[in-house]
Amino acid sequence: xxxxxxxxxxxxxxxxxxxxxxxxxxxxxxxxxxxxxxxxxxxxxxxxxxxxxxxxxxxxxxxxxxxxxxxxxxxxxxxxxxxxxxxxxxxxxxxxxxxxxxxxxxxxxxxxxxxxxxxxxxxxxxxxxxxxxxxxxxxxxxxxxxxxxxxxxxxxxxxxxxxxxxxxxxxxxxxxxxxxxxxxxxxxxxxxxxxxxxxxxxxxxxxxxx
Length: 210
Fold this sequence. Notes:
The structure is a single chain. The chain is of the alpha/beta class. The chain contains eight helices and nine strands. Strand 4 (about 70), helix 4 (about 80-90) and strand 5 form a beta-alpha-beta unit. It starts with a helix and ends with a helix.
């Protein structure tokens, strides 16, 4: 994954500092690293199909260790569509290494799918190096994120929100998300947290009405 070496760095340098919070449930850098390292899968490809939760973040980190790939599916899709996608990916074999480290920048780590509004979902893959390049470009434009707290109120299955999570893990800043999309919650802040950056997609309210 483009951020795993950084995750290990933050776990060593600031182990007890907050890393991720899914509304009222949080994880420190050391907790996140240990939890992900404990479940690095044997297979080279993992299908991740879950609602927002700390376990999503842990499984995502573990699923892209080394040169593994992760397929992130929207859990609100029809079950028959999800089953067909999983069936098409069932022939992927085992991975070689089990360490929680970044793989080759040229290797693919993420397979996302289109929404399927006009035809069956189509796969789009990204390389580790492409996201690392994007992290650098983003920080070059907006400045360092290490002191910021980012809120992505929508589903982590959405590409923009998933990128925001990865960028925070790369930069060492706090990432926050909601357990489910709620307009009121999106404008609230726990007393000890002030959000400086908010991520969102234009169709979120239409797809998940309050």
